[in-house]
Input
Amino acid sequence: MVRGPILLSLFVAACTVGPNYSRPELDLPANLGVAQSPNPAPQRWWTLFNDPVLDQLVDEALEKNRDLRIAAHRIEQSRAQLGITRSEMFPDAGIEGSRSRTRNSAVGSVQLPPDVPLTTNAYRLVLRASWELDFWGKYRRGTEAARAELAASEAGREAVRASLIGDVARGYFTLRALDRRIEAVERTLLGRQKSLELQKLRLDAGVVSELEYRQVESDLRAAEALLPSLRQARTRQEGALAVLLGRSPREVFASSVPRGTPAAPATVEVPAGLPSDLLLRRPDLRQAEERLHAANARIGVARAAYFPNITLTGFFGGESQMLRDIFSPEARTWNVAGGLLAPLFAGGQIRGGLDLANARTREAAESYQQSVANAFREVRDALAAQVNARDAFLSQQAREAALARTLELSRLRYDNGAVSLFEVLETERQLILARLEAIDAERDRNSAVVDLYLALGA
Output
């Protein structure tokens, strides 16, 4: 007795038109060409910087960021659309009730018998149902596409989340670098103000010429000119971070962002399981693949338009002239009907719909493969950037230390009359530039770590 329903379900499933989804063939590298760590990437990778303030800002952004909330609302929309699409696979049923009162003409072309009243009432209450059989799988393919779109929306939210964490971390490092640049310029400015006062005393005593005095003054004004642009950049960065954190307009206007002191992260190793797990881990790749899956399923929806629509309809209820009789056996009324509508000529509309679905699927396949290629390019670039940024930072640190010692020696030689003031000032200029470049190099090193974890889909 069980074989009949099983065979029927298998037959109906076999009638589902359209291609089944399969992931496109991808020419993936065997490995990433670097040593891999036996440990997977940590879920909260930004905690590797050992900065509680950064952890707090990321948590605030994940809770309040509006782009992340918008992505969550898109998931709700996709889930609702899945429910709407899936409902088309089931029968529609409803209750229809009506009441009418009619007055017939006494002198019309159809003469009523004398015992028939001219005015009559009619009451009707029936249960109606209709069901379009999904014989060709049109609604099953539509449900498959809607389910894939829901998965794409969920992956899209994860992509927004990953991008948000990266933007917050990079923005925070940029803000910290601007703070340190301003501090370095202010320290330099303080030193040059003291030098100018000293040179003024020497000028008044006739020890130095006005040329030397004006050169020191020029360097002081150059340091003063740096501060406004740096402070403006810091104001913009604070505002951008406040928006990322999802703060209110009042809080954005205040732009009060706390600071911490991030520790130097250790050298990042590639977590185990790559590259084969890269396709499953990166949310943007999952989103691209689910969109391809949805487009592929819609080919079946378009192809099903070539086949007949098979519909079952019916109603059951009562109809009478008196409301009290509507549930009596004599008032019972019912109807069962089946319908078939097969397309004969549509002016190319069905063929155009199928061509459109096929073209969109090919486009989605190309987009997916392009996304995979870009993902491996980003991993390759991030691996190189992480190493190069670290080396550049170490070199800039060594250069700053060397110039600081050079400045000490130049001042000693100047005090002993061995070198001119211009040599000392030139060394000071080189030192402040090296100090600012070292700050930027540290920011770039931290940002390279962020980019690597994002590229790996951590």
